[in-house]
Structures are given as structure tokens and as C-alpha cells.
């Protein structure tokens, strides 16, 4: 019976598409229009004047997926096919950070009232987007972004499938500015789409940032697509099995429920599109959640009250798949044979195009105060430096800031091109011909590649370059371990030794002269110079 209903549905939908002059090609052959109309009325009980809502209701009643039905009859012709029903979503998508690669930058110090983001940010991985759009945009939520003249006002340029595909067959070409790999059956992909992006949709892009699995972030690898609770309690399929959107709100603000296509909690807080859920939204405050545990007596006023949940509950990152911790661009351009391989991780330590690297597993994050604000280096706006190592991304806040707590971060170090005369952190043209005639990955000439990018971006370049040491801090929020694996788990004082007297914590970075277990004092606090009263381990 269901098959008969589905056949009737196919015929009805074909007739409606034809009558409404939809810009699509009918794949299925059918009887003459008069006979088909009669068949609709008799067998399906549907009308050619039915609305989109009628379609949805019919599919629901008959336990059919609207997209699967529609695109089994109608040929998918790109984003325009999606826009036939989702015009509002198409307009929303034009303003989302995943498409514009910039947006409200209220968390970047000095740029709170502007719009900045990935298009302007400097980093010490592949350094910058401008001139390199054709390669960077293999993970762009759009098609054809290969030059700064790209049309960000056309909803047809939005790639809906990258976030909504559930077929597992969709992929973007490495070198064609985010266009699909040739040969993919896009109708199969379109039939599979889900309203809410799944973990695999998010992680397939974010895990491969920086040029490979877990290269950049350290706490986002492809293993999280289908992992276990001992690796991440939130995403483990034997744990909470949560989607990324549960906290990040890809299509809605998780705090107030307002509908948009923004993303709460963009990387490094460069774009603010909604308040991301935080640990206490689900778990309550520190005292409540630790009541009745071994940690109860160590969590509260005067004791570790400035520690964010992540600090103890993410004891290490890159526990399964290694991450890059050092990258030296100054070594690029050499013909090295054989390529050295890191014996611990099995990953290459050199690439002619990129230079030399260092990889690590089980990376202990560094600890810093953070109030959610960042100092960032932006092309043309804050791309100057005065000393080395140049700080590319620095969380803001300290002990005296009521909004700041101690969080874990991945520290990335390396070197990259600068102009020693203008004191400018330079953008290199690495890939493709849209950004100039001299990509470094073609001619391996730094001066030509840097001049291309200067002409493209308007940066100050004197014609002389050098390589400067850089550092970058990145938030760590994933690979949340079970409670029994948290730092400090177990009865004191044994658990205390996870952080104290181990050399793990750089106490000077969080405002202490030394480990308080070794007599360290809080710099500038009322405890400085005093041996009376409890030692506040925060």
C-alpha cells in the first residue's frame, strides 16, 4: 500500500511541478497531463494547487521524507532548487559567518563595533585567506569563492549541502573553490538532507582545518564523528551522543531560541552570532555538581573558584589523533628526500610547500585567564608588531577580572614571514593565479609571493622580508573526559599532584610567583608576603 501511495505521490508532485513551472527537469516519465491530473484526483486525492505545506503534510501522513520524494522526481540543479522552498533560509545564510567569513566582531578588543573574521585574521598555520581563497574555500559554505570580488549577495552561491548532506557521499574539490567533486550524484545527496546538521557535517570540515585531521585545533578530530565516552563524554555514542548544534546552535540561538543561520561560538570568538551554551547551563554551578564527590571540599569559595570546568575535565587533547604544535615556514622551499617522519605519530615532519613541523599526542593544554575577549592580528588593521614572539591570538582577563576564569588552551608556535622595515606581519600568496602571477607553491619565491599579496591586500611591504617567531593560543572545549579521568580526581593530596609540583602549570602566567605548594604567592594580592590564612589555589 505504501508503495502505491508513493507512486501516486510521485505523479502528483510531477504534475504540480509542471503546472507551477518549476525550473527543474522531470526525471520520471508519466502519462499525458489530462490522465495524470485525473490520476492525482482519484488515486492520491491531491490537487495541482496544493501548497508546500500540503506537500509536507502529505509526506508526513504517509511516512515519507519530503526531500527524498521531491528529489527522486525533480532533478537537483544546485542551490536554486533549495531556494524554491527555503527563500528565507537563503537570505539568512548570506549573513552567516560560515558564508561571509566575517561578522560582528564584538569579542575582538578594539574592533567591537565592526565586522571582521576569517577573511582578515592572521594565524601561524596557512597564515591568511586573501590571495588563497581558491584553496581555503574547500571548506567554505558556498561555491566559487576564489577572489575578493566574490558575490556575497547571491543566495545561489550558498552551499546548503555541505551542512545538510546525510548521504556521506558529498565532498568538495581541493582546488576549485568549494565546488563539488565531479561525479557525485547530487540528487542522491539532495534526497538525504536533514534539517539539523549532524556531527559529521561539522567535524568533516572543522577537524581538517589547517591541512589535515586534527592539525589545527587539537581537540577536534574526525574520530569525534563516532567515538566513545572515554574520549568525549558529550559526543561519545555510548555517552550523551550530542550533536554539535546542541551547544553551538548552528540554525538557532541556543539561549533564546531565535532562528537564524548563525553559529554560536565561532573559533576564537572572532565572529559573534549567538551565545554558546556553557557547562553550567546544563550541569549547574561548581559547588552543586561536585556535591558528594571527592572534589567537593576543593571546589568552592576560596578554593579553585576561578577554574573553568574545562581546565580539569580536559586533561589532555590529541589523545587519539596527533596535532601540530610547531610550524616553521622559514624552512620551506627545500628539496628534502626522504621526508622525515615523526616516529611517535607517523606524520611527516617536512613539506616543501610549508616548511618543518612538530607533532604531539596527549598534549597538556596551557592555562590562561579568559573573559571571552581576544587580542587578534588583523590584515591592514592590527598587523604590526613590536617584539618577538609575535602574539597572534591572546585571551584577555586576569585574576581581578570578575568575568575571567582560568581556561585551557592549545599553544601553537612557529615562524612566518614579516617585513622587518615596516614591522608588518605579511600575507603570502600561496595558491592559485587569482591572487597574482607568483604563488609560492608554484615558484617558491618568497619575495614574489609576498609582493602579490601586498598588491592584493594593500599591506605595507618594503620589498624585504624576514621570518619572525609567533605564538597563538586556541580555545580547548572538546575531548571532555569522564569524571574519573579529570585532573584532581581522587582523594587529596594524591589528586592535587596532577597540577601541583609536576611542572605542568606555568604559575607566572596565571599570576603566581611559583607553585603555591612550593611557597609561591599571588602577585599583587592580599596574600603576597603573608603566611597566614588559607592558600587560595585559584
SSE topology sketch:
Elements: H1 2-19, H2 33-44, H3 52-61, H4 66-73, H5 79-83, H6 87-93, H7 97-100, E1 103-104, E2 115-116, H8 133-136, H9 161-164, H10 186-192, H11 199-206, H12 245-248, H13 279-283, H14 286-290, H15 309-313, E3 323-328, E4 350-351, E5 355-360, E6 366-370, E7 374-376, E8 390-395, E9 405-419, E10 424-425, H16 440-443, H17 446-457, E11 466-475
Parallel strand pairs: 3-9, 8-11
Antiparallel strand pairs: 1-2, 3-5, 4-5, 6-9, 7-8, 9-10, 9-11
What does this structure look like?
This protein has 538 residues and is of the alpha+beta class. The protein contains 17 helices and eleven strands. The strands form two sheets. Strands 3, 4, 5, 6, 7, 8, 9, 10 and 11 form a nine-stranded mixed sheet that branches. It has a two-stranded antiparallel sheet with strand order 1-2. A hairpin with a 3-residue loop joins strand 4 and strand 5. It is globular and about 70 Å long.
Amino acid at each position: 500500500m505504501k508503495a502505491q501511495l508513493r507512486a501516486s505521490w510521485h505523479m502528483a508532485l510531477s504534475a504540480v511541478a509542471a503546472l507551477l513551472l518549476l525550473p527543474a527537469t522531470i526525471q520520471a516519465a508519466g502519462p499525458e497531463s489530462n490522465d495524470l491530473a485525473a490520476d492525482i484526483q482519484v488515486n492520491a486525492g491531491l490537487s495541482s494547487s496544493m501548497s508546500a505545506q500540503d506537500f509536507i503534510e502529505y509526506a508526513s501522513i504517509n511516512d515519507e521524507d519530503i526531500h527524498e520524494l521531491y528529489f527522486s522526481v525533480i532533478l537537483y540543479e544546485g542551490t536554486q532548487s533549495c531556494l524554491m522552498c527555503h527563500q528565507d533560509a537563503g537570505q539568512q545564510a548570506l549573513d552567516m559567518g560560515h558564508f561571509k567569513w566575517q561578522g560582528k566582531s564584538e569579542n575582538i578588543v578594539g574592533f567591537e563595533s565592526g565586522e571582521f573574521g576569517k577573511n582578515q585574521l592572521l594565524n601561524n598555520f596557512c597564515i591568511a585567506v586573501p590571495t588563497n581563497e581558491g584553496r581555503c574555500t574547500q571548506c567554505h559554505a558556498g561555491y566559487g569563492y576564489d577572489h575578493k570580488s566574490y558575490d556575497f549577495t547571491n543566495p545561489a552561491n550558498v552551499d546548503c549541502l555541505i551542512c545538510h548532506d546525510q548521504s556521506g557521499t558529498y565532498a568538495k574539490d581541493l582546488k576549485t573553490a568549494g565546488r563539488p567533486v565531479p561525479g557525485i550524484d547530487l540528487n542522491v545527496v539532495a534526497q538525504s538532507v536533514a534539517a539539523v546538521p549532524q556531527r559529521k557535517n561539522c567535524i568533516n570540515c572543522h577537524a581538517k582545518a589547517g591541512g589535515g585531521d586534527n592539525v589545527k585545533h587539537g581537540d577536534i578530530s574526525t574520530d569525534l564523528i563516532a567515538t566513545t565516552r572515554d574520549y568525549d563524554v558529550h559526543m561519545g555514542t555510548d555517552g550523551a551522543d550530542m550533536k554539535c548544534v546542541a551547544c553551538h546552535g548552528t540554525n538557532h540561538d541556543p539561549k533564546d531560541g531565535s532562528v537564524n543561520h548563525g553559529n554560536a561560538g565561532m573559533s576564537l570568538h572572532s565572529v559573534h552570532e549567538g551565545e554558546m551554551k556553557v557547562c553550567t547551563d546544563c550541569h549547574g554551578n561548581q559547588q552543586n555538581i561536585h556535591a558528594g564527590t571527592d572534589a567537593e571540599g576543593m571546589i568552592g569559595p576560596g578554593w579553585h573558584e576561578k577554574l573553568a570546568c574545562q581546565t580539569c575535565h580536559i586533561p589532555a587533547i590529541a589523545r587519539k589523533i596527533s596535532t601540530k604544535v610547531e610550524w616553521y615556514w622559514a624552512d620551506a622551499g627545500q628539496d628534502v628526500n626522504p621526508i622525515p617522519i615523526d616516529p611517535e605519530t607517523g606524520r611527516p615532519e617536512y613539506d616543501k610547500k610549508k616548511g618543518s613541523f612538530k607533532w604531539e599526542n596527549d598534549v597538556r593544554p596551557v592555562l590562561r585567564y579568559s573573559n571571552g575577549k581576544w587580542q587578534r592580528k588583523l590584515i591592514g588593521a592590527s598587523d604590526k608588531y613590536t617584539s618577538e614572539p609575535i602574539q597572534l591570538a591572546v585571551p584577555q582577563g586576569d585574576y581581578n577580572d570578575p568575568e575571567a576564569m582560568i581556561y585551557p588552551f592549545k599553544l601553537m608556535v612557529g615562524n612566518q614571514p614579516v617585513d622587518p622595515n615596516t614591522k608588518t606581519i605579511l600575507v603570502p600568496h600561496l595558491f592559485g593565479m587569482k591572487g597574482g602571477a607568483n604563488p609560492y607553491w608554484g615558484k617558491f619565491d618568497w619575495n614574489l609571493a609576498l609582493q602579490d599579496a601586498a598588491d592584493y591586500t594593500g599591506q605595507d611591504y618594503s620589498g624585504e622580508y624576514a621570518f619572525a617567531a609567533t605564538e597563538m593560543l586556541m580555545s580547548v572545549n572538546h575531548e571532555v573526559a569522564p569524571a574519573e579521568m579529570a585532573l584532581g580526581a581522587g582523594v587529596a593530596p594524591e589528586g592535587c599532584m596532577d597540577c601541583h609540583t609536576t611542572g605542568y602549570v606555568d604559575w607566572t602566567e596565571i599570576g603566581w610567583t611559583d607553585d603555591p605548594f612550593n611557597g609561591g604567592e599571588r602577585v599583587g594580592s592580599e596574600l603576597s608576603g603573608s603566611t597566614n590564612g588559607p592558600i587560595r589555589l585559584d
